Amino acid sequence: MTKGMGTIKLDDTIVAVSTPIGEGGIGIVRLSGKDALGIADRIFLSKDGETPSRFKTYTVHYGHIVENAQCPPQKLAGPPMAEIIDEVILTVMRAPRSYTKEDVVEINCHSGIVPLKKILDLVMRNEARLAEPGEFTKRAFLNGRIDILQAESVLDIIRAKTDLSLKAAVNNLGGLFSKKIDNIRNELVGILAHIEATIDFSEEDDVDTLRKKDIFKKLAKIKKEIEKLISTADEGKVLRQGIKAVICGSPNVGKSSLMNVLLNEPRAIVTHIPGTTRDTIEEVVNIKGIPVILVDTAGISSTNHPAEKEGVERSHSSIKRADLVIFLLDYGRKMNRHDLKIIQNIKDKNNTIIVINKNDLRKNIDIGLVRKFFPKRPIVYVSALNLQGIDKLENKIRDMIFKGRAPSPDFISISNDRQLGKLRSSLDDIKTAVDSLRERVSMDCVSICVRSSIESLGEIIGDTVTEEALDKIFSEFCIGK
To answer: Residue 393: CB partners within 8 Å, gap ≥ 6?
Structure first.
């Protein structure tokens, strides 16, 4: 389906509550469509008596939502007239300069289930229908205000967990990713023209050879560009979903203290008694812009106590599932058999940071032995008690996740599996085209591969998209967005 076609209706007016249902200061009911202003005329009574259809665009007006705006509101005495539902602020945004490129009316009322529901019901009785999930954003796409990449970035903004994940989503909404995809497509369209010219002039050997060399170089360059985009998938997933980082170590090395410092709150119980933590504790923390699910584990040791034994088993299970392991050792004592047992369990975990805690104490640990066990793992010295080295640890966590490449201000990333799948399809076609040129296969085959690659890139930004694909994309949105 191309944009604006299919069974999706754009000729009706939709309405939804665009704020969370519940008690609060403000609730918003949003209308979009050709009858939005007409419906507002029938339910809104402004303080100055003017009707919404006469309001200028981007203006805000005080008044009341009433059952019949053609009548004055009911007074304390006298016959019943128009029933006041709520005191509101009404905003008008006329097409095409609105979120959906349609006439949009937003009613800012008092939040709460009753006023929001009564206003929603009143609007629907005046011939608006309840919006589908994400339909406002879907209309913005179908009406050409944004592309699919930008539409998906709206959901990423809503779900952003840190300032860095928000920045990446805002960059995508601003069209940075779309522009990159569009530039690659335009390059491929130009290459396709060269290929077709090569086919047309295939009898001229000199021209044929020169064109094929030029096409090969350009396709090889595009192949690297797409591979670079695909390489952002893991980083994008980290920003959206976060990583699970497990703090492990033998009893009383300061795991809970470190977790409390990273969280900046006393979440885990800390005492001088070994084995205080008998279960795993999980909390989400923002570390240098990365959402990190921090897991404090029970001290791993040999024990016969049922609760402690279960805690140790859960610690081992958490380590296996972890994206990052933070292994704590005590600066003030030598490694013991419990430390050595943990080392055996984590030696194959590449994403491991060795943290030597309590570096304010007298040194007793053998650093050479630690380095022997972990020749390529980073070692960070901290004191959870005195807050020393914590910033270095956070920087090291960030560097390990982003492989030493801190995101730039114009950072863009793949947002979901749909985008990743289409990019991989495009890359596969380019690889086949490059191999075909290298093996001197017919230029017709090269042409087919390049066309297919262009189509996959077009699906990423929504130049061609099926209604089924649209429904799947927007089904994850809330109704009011």
So the answer is: 326, 353, 355, 380, 382
Query: pTM value?
Result: 0.75
Query: So what's the pLDDT on residue 357?
Result: 94
Same domain, 277 and 396: yes
* Strands of 290-296's sheet in order across: 281-287, 290-296, 243-248, 324-330, 352-357, 379-381
φ and ψ at 91, to 5 degrees? -115, 135
Domains contained in the chain, number: 3
- What integer pLDDT is reported at residue 378 of this predicted model? 93
Q: First and final CA of the chain: distance in angstroms? A: 23
Q: Which domain holds residue 394?
A: 244-401
In a domain, 475, yes or no: no
* R_g of the chain computed on alpha carbons: 30
CB-based contacts of 154: which residues, under 8 Å, 6+ apart?
Answer: 137, 173, 477, 481
Please say whether the beta carbons of 244 and 293 come within 8 A.
yes
Cis peptide before 96 (omega within 30 of 0): yes
Q: How far apart are CA 170 and CA 3, in angstroms?
A: 24
Answer yes or no: do 372 and 323 share one domain: yes
- Residue 361, Cβ density class (10 Å: 0-12 exposed, 13-18 middle, ≥19 buried): middle
Within a domain: residue 250?
A: yes
pLDDT digits (tens, 9 = 90+) for 93-151: 999 999 999 999 999 999 989 999 999 999 999 999 999 999 999 999 999 999 999 99
Residue 330 lies in a domain: yes
Same domain, 250 and 395: yes
| 252 and 392 part of one domain | yes
Q: State residue 80 phi and psi, 5-degree precision.
A: -65, 135
